[in-house]
User: What shape does this take?
Amino acid sequence: MLRIHNTLTREKEVFSSIEPGHVRMYVCGMTVYDYCHLGHARVLVVFDMVARWLRASEYRVTYVRNITDIDDKIIRRAQENGESIHVLTGRYIGFMNEDAAALGVLPPDHEPRATEYVEAMQSLISRLENKGLAYVAASRDVCYAVRKFPGYGKLSGKSLDDLRAGERVEVASDKQDPLDFVLWKHAKAEEPAEARWPSPWGEGRPGWHIECSAMSSQLLGEHFDIHGGGQDLQFPHHENEIAQSEGACGHDHGRFVNYWMHNGFVRVDNEKMSKSLGNFFTIREVLKQYDAEVVRFFILRAHYRSPLNYSDAHLDDARNALTRLYTALKGYRGAAAVDWDEPHAQRFKAALDDDFGTPEAMAVLFDLATAINRGETALAGQLKGLAGVLGLLQRDAVDFLQAAPAGGPDGDAI
Assistant: This one.
């Protein structure tokens, strides 16, 4: 019986899908103006693991992970480079997909781009305006009236008076409240034509938050099972999604998402890894030094909600640990096979059913490796099969053990 820690209730809850046997999951993806860093890698790998386990648990999964391809930073970078937004975002989407594939991340079922859903965003904004939850400021931006939504703050667990607008919230000149956030940004004279769309409120483009409300409802419906993302998105982004989606759609059941999941930060020297702090490492930089499967192992050996502390020493340790597992499979040429009635498999299942407890699941893999090294070679298929649920140990063991430390002979993993 799967239990998930729900950020909304701050408790582990027994998972029950809205539609029996079918899980609908939305995860906030990347803003594509630069290379992905290890913080992005954690989101990619963690929710790939979640989707894999749901499928291994015999659910049909519809997994949506969006792409933000219009944003202030994207516009600025394209102008700095002297290129079109479309060319810039297309290039970095390609890099992102290469990085994800290197890390063993399976493609989501849908990967919508924000620019493809502007009409749906405008429709959602109009619904909010008709309900008195949105207004046009003197700046001609359309803003959400936060204090008119009674449930605002329930995800972050703070009162309205305690909250402050997040760093990505556009400031309008005459907001009714400092916490009000922009739904539609009026076009600025210096912005290119490709960054503006016609609308009932004049030419402009959508705010960041409305993108995910529109894309998720279009692809998964107005009520779905799981919404995930990094911990930094809990406020304001996900809080604002709730306000938008529940404000526009009502929801007699009380929620537009049943289970909210947030993975912990990647940290360097006890600070969150981020581009704004300048302490980030791109996936590509790391893959020049470490095999991509080592990086995936490093991410999954920590519980998804815990901080993940990055260092060369921790990655070296992950490489050594993964080497021990592959060594146990060195002479095995058979297929991966899981007998879920076998004791190790039962422990593995119990670990992942307890809020995706990968540290405990990894411990089972090492117990299997120990047993194989002691002569219980019949367990090799079990080790390979259980590890495969996590996207690990699917290469030929000899190939892994003989490989260069980096992803290829020239040191470039991509």
In short: Confidence is low (pLDDT under 50) at residues 165-172, 406-414.
